[in-house]
Amino acid sequence: MIDLFIIPLLKIAIVLNATLVGVTYMVLLERKVIAWAQSRLGPMRVGPHGILQPVADALKLMIKEDITPVRVDRWVFTAAPIISMVPALIVYAVIPFGPEVTLFGRQVTLYITDINVGLLYVVSVASVGVYGIILAGYASNSKYPLLASLRASAQLISYEVAVTLTLVSVILVAGTLSMVGIVRAQEEAGVWFAFIQPLAFGIFFIGGLAETNRAPFDLPEAEQELTGGFHTEYSGMRFALFFLAEYANVIVVSSVATTLFLGGWLRPFPSVDALAFLDIVPSWTWFLLKSFVFLYVFVWIRATLPRYRYDQLMRLGWKVLIPLAIVNLVVTGFIRLMVL
Amino acid sequence: MGEAIAFYTIAAFVLGFAVMVVSTKDTVHSVLFLVLDFLAVAALYVLLGAEFLAAIQVLVYAGGIVVLYLFVVMLVNLKGFPEENRDPHRRTKLGLGLAAAVVVELGAILAYDYARPVPQLADAAIPVVGNTEEVGWLLYTSYLIPFEIASMLLLVAMIGAIVLAKREL
Amino acid sequence: MITPTHYMLLSAALFMIGVVGVLVRRNIIIIFMSIELILNAVNINLVAFSSQLQHTVGQVFAVFVVAVAAAEAAVGLGIILAFYRNRETVNIDEMNLMRW
């Protein structure tokens, strides 16, 4: 009974809360890092060095007036931010933060569940996340958001193909679809998949940037283009939900990249025994550290690179990344068949 | 027992959403009910132990095909209801006829089941290999030729769709 | 408890809802979506029997049905778009160019 209900519920509560807090602090991280990249300090007023800034942001968005334009489709208008947020949160059901540990005398696994089609689940949930954007633009009953949402969703579904192909290469190397199985395969191989599949890693990262509408692929939501993109007509808590959904997606992409390419909960060089002293650091801390590195790189790239134009973006997705991903897949399959 | 509750709940959702798909006036709402219907059918596949097919259902049907429908609906962008009915009684006659056909068909299934009851779904033996591997084995060994033909069909369909939707060749 | 008969009944009901949608509605996009419902009903039947006979062939067949449905949806929607650009309608009562 306890094992069937209480422990998973506790895990879900912890993971969801940690994710939501992480998402709000990601906002602060972004503002701070971009500020430092631009030789200024970022938010400094609220709390010491601006630590409490996310609290102020959340309060502000919650007390803002919730404007609903006339003649919108009420149900769809309300549902679109929710449809955007939910896929970003439910992916955490399969992401492994660590192996089994002993807590209070019980063997507890540090992941909510491990289904044997875990990676396929992640991809399918990500493909449902497109609906939030399409419906937001449609429900706003206005030209600019509609066009922006069509652009954004076209961008998302284009890069989905490249990302899925790279994930297939990872599956080929790991031999299993379950996320825990992939980390264990990296443990057995003794080296992170980022070194075995560097091209897949690169394509996954670039595709992840495009999938989450992050710079330099954030044309659909840039303020200078199409007056703010698909969430123009949203205000108050609904806009906050879109905003948070984007950052939640960024954290999800970081977590999935960590699990697939950077060894999940494994310490660096898991096969080198001389570094066994690093085992003092618990497994989930390694996971969080690696995810944090990804988050930092995401923000760093935003602060550094200029924006892609839409046709350049689509050209990159279809004419560069997909052929590269296919070539990677073919070569991986060939090596796996002939050599290993 | 738990399986029975799950089956009846999911079946109610599947049929409920299907009825909404067919009867809603607004096309976009219809498409959204279709997505929910496909997700419910995916839950049904998980109940039956076909996890790979459930993931494919969500990935391809709900995440691909219905997005395509939504794009087309928005490009066609009809605010009015384009359904004019020439014969206002035609629908009723047709509907009653079809309902009678439904009743006959369901009755036939039930009668056949009463005459020769189908054994219960066999408990899934502890799988040696996962569901995905089994499907993969069959796809790549016994059914390789249909697999290749399906991939050629998809290629042809892709080219055809692009040619049809282009403004000028 | 839950025999394949239950799944057959569900599949038959879903099939008939799809057929009703094809025959009664006039909007061609909704007709296409009803066809997808029909294909799903067939898939449910296939998977239910695959589970009962413990042979994965049913699921393989269902995968092919999904692939064919995707191809058909793409081409069908392309046709609808091309027609809409010429005739500005999606009511199938007005798609009668090839009638006598």
Shape of chain B: globular
Give helix and strand order of chain B, one letter per element, not per position.
HHHHHH
Structural class of chain C: mainly alpha
Largest sheet of chain C: none
Helix-strand blueprint:
The complex is a heterotrimer of chains A (about 350), B (about 170) and C (about 100).
Chain A (H helix, E strand, L loop, with lengths): L1 H36 L15 H11 L10 H17 L9 E4 L2 E4 L8 H11 L1 H10 L3 H32 L4 H11 L3 H4 L1 H14 L24 H26 L21 H22 L5 H29 L2
Chain B lengths: L1 H22 L3 H21 L3 H26 L13 H26 L15 H10 L3 H22 L4
Chain C lengths: L3 H21 L3 H26 L3 H31 L13
Helix pairs in contact in C: 1-2, 2-3
Walk me through what this model shows.
The complex is a heterotrimer of chains A (340), B (169) and C (100). Chain A is an all-alpha fold. Chain A is built from twelve helices and two strands; from the N terminus they run H-H-H-E-E-H-H-H-H-H-H-H-H-H. In chain A, a hairpin with a 2-residue loop joins strand 1 and strand 2. Chain A has one domain. Chain A has helices spanning 2-37, 53-63, 74-90, 118-128, 130-139, 143-174, 179-189, 193-196, 198-211, 236-261, 283-304, 310-338, and strands spanning 100-103, 106-109. The model of chain A has no long low-confidence stretch (mean pLDDT 87). Chain B has helices at residues 2-23, 27-47, 51-76, 90-115, 131-140, 144-165. The model of chain B has no long low-confidence stretch (mean pLDDT 84). Chain C is mostly helical and 100 residues long. Helix content of chain C is 78%, strand content 0%. Chain C is built from three helices and no strands. Chain C has helices at 4-24, 28-53, 57-87. In chain C, helix 1 packs antiparallel against helix 2 (28-53). At the A-B interface, helix 4, helix 5 and helix 6 of A face helix 2 and helix 3 of B.
